[in-house]
Design goal:
Oligomer: single chain
CATH superfamily of the largest domain: Glycogen Phosphorylase B
Strand content: 15-25%
Largest sheet: 7 strands, parallel
CATH class of the largest domain: Alpha Beta
CATH architecture of the largest domain: 3-Layer(aba) Sandwich
Shape: globular
Radius of gyration: 23 Å
Order of helices and strands: EHEEEEHEHEHEHEHHEHEHEHEHEEHHH
Number of helices: 14
Number of domains: 2
């Protein structure tokens, strides 16, 4: 029989509900880690049949409790679509959880309902959200601010968002930076299996010669990715007497246009379309064999994926256009920034980082350390649990003192905004 009263008192395992639209494949390791913690009971609610273009969903859930919650799209004329998961609201009323972690998008009507219901029932509702990536004003900020203030706290992906929200008047003790993670365990195993000979064989298969270099892009081939600008930068690199190959991993509506543009710019021999690749061993080989990963649009998980295989990243310097993972790129340590919208500066940075010798060789350790020290499942889950514990007493681990990871304090380039020209 389901509990209809909120759990109180010693010896009662707290219940934490996590609402998601769907479960992407890269969330599997985090959810399994949280689900096996033992200090609380985690139930994940998501739509197992969600149709998300170009997003690979997790296999059948295991290692954590799961309940399906169908997501409905609500559309209005000339407005963005909204989402709604009524099953999540019903679950909260039925089971009276101690903590609910909801998606923090203003376009998710479920989040609004959960924050209001949480206030009524006395349930702590936290929003897992990007927060802010740049200054926001007007009606958009008013709406977002209302949602954030209805919650008991925010789980943020990065330090930059926390700084912006504090400047907007949000108390620091309600802002919990948990960062992000992929399956670093699997990636670590793949990285250790890849040999120098494997990398050389892959480069040879593309026809890369000794005096040539290789860069990669992984992601959907869509207009929003601004990939024509990357091809134009490669053409400038070639005009300056340097030959750099580009591997595009992914598929999408832009592929025919990119193939045509490659031929028009005389880059057919240098640009390689691999299509969608989901096998981690193959992805790891491509990234590991590359001298540089370049993201000409908003950078996110691609940054973490590249650094996990020891490959530095080149991004543009308009940070408000990026997702929070841009913070993992530190100038001259794990990557570089070029000036937003300047194809010639992108070309200059590619040449400077790859010739006369690829600078990746001295940066692989720092790239992998960024993942090992911050953007990994252990740290991600630990900070998640630390945030939950601030809103709900947890059960002690059997035979162990209850401890949480020390706060991670950013240093170096993360302490200040990226300025134009970096």
């Amino acid at each position: 029989m389901k509990s209809t009263t909120k759990r109180k008192g010693a010896g009662i395992t707290p219940l934490v509900l996590l609402q998601q639209a769907c479960i992407p494949h890269y969330r599997r390791r985090l959810l399994e880690t949280l689900g096996s913690d033992g200090r609380f009971r985690l139930v994940v609610l998501a739509d197992p049949s969600a149709d998300v273009p170009f997003l690979r969903l997790s296999d059948a859930p295991h290692g954590y409790e799961f309940e399906p919650a169908k997501q409905y799209a609500i559309r209005f004329p000339l407005q963005p679509s909204f989402s709604w998961q009524p099953g999540v609201i019903a679950k909260v009323f039925r089971d009276r959880p101690d903590v609910v972690i909801a998606q923090g998008s203003p376009y998710d009507l479920t989040a609004w309902a959960l924050t209001v219901v949480g206030r009524i029932l006395g349930t702590e509702v936290l929003l897992w959200t990007h927060g802010l990536q740049g200054e926001e004003f007007g009606l958009k900020w008013v709406v977002r601010k209302c949602l954030y203030r209805l919650s008991r706290g925010l789980l943020l992906y990065g330090d930059h968002a926390k700084r912006l929200l504090i400047a907007k008047g949000f108390p620091a003790d309600r802002l919990h930076v948990v960062y992000n993670s992929l399956d670093d365990c699997e990636q670590g195993e793949v990285f250790r299996r890849i040999t120098v000979q494997d990398r050389e064989a892959f480069r040879c298969s593309l026809g890369i010669e000794t005096n040539e270099r290789l860069i990669c892009f992984t992601g959907r081939l869509q207009p929003v990715k601004r990939l024509p600008s990357l091809l134009q930068a490669l053409a400038l690199v070639m005009q300056r007497g340097k030959h750099v190959h580009l591997v595009l991993v992914g598929d999408g509506s832009e592929r025919p246009r990119l193939e045509s543009l490659s031929a028009e710019l005389g880059l057919t021999r240098l640009v390689h379309f691999l299509g969608a690749v989901y096998d981690e061993s193959r992805l790891g080989l491509v990234i590991s064999a590359s001298d540089l990963a370049v993201v000409p649009s908003g950078a996110g998980l691609t940054v973490m994926h590249s650094l996990a295989y020891g490959t530095p990243v080149l991004l543009h310097d308009r940070i408000e256009e990026h997702f929070p993972e841009w913070e993992a790129v530190r100038e001259e340590e794990t990557g570089w920034f070029y000036r937003w919208g300047e194809v010639s500066d992108c070309a200059n940075k590619i040449i400077d980082t790859l010739f006369p010798r690829s600078r990746k060789h001295g940066m692989t350790g720092a790239c992998r350390s960024m993942i090992g020290n911050r953007y990994n499942t252990t740290t991600h889950a630990g900070l998640f649990i630390e945030a939950i514990a601030k809103h709900c007493p947890l059960m002690p681990l059997a035979g162990k003192e209850q401890t949480f990871p020390d706060a991670i304090v950013p240093s170096g380039p993360l302490d200040r905004p990226i300025e134009a020209g970096h």
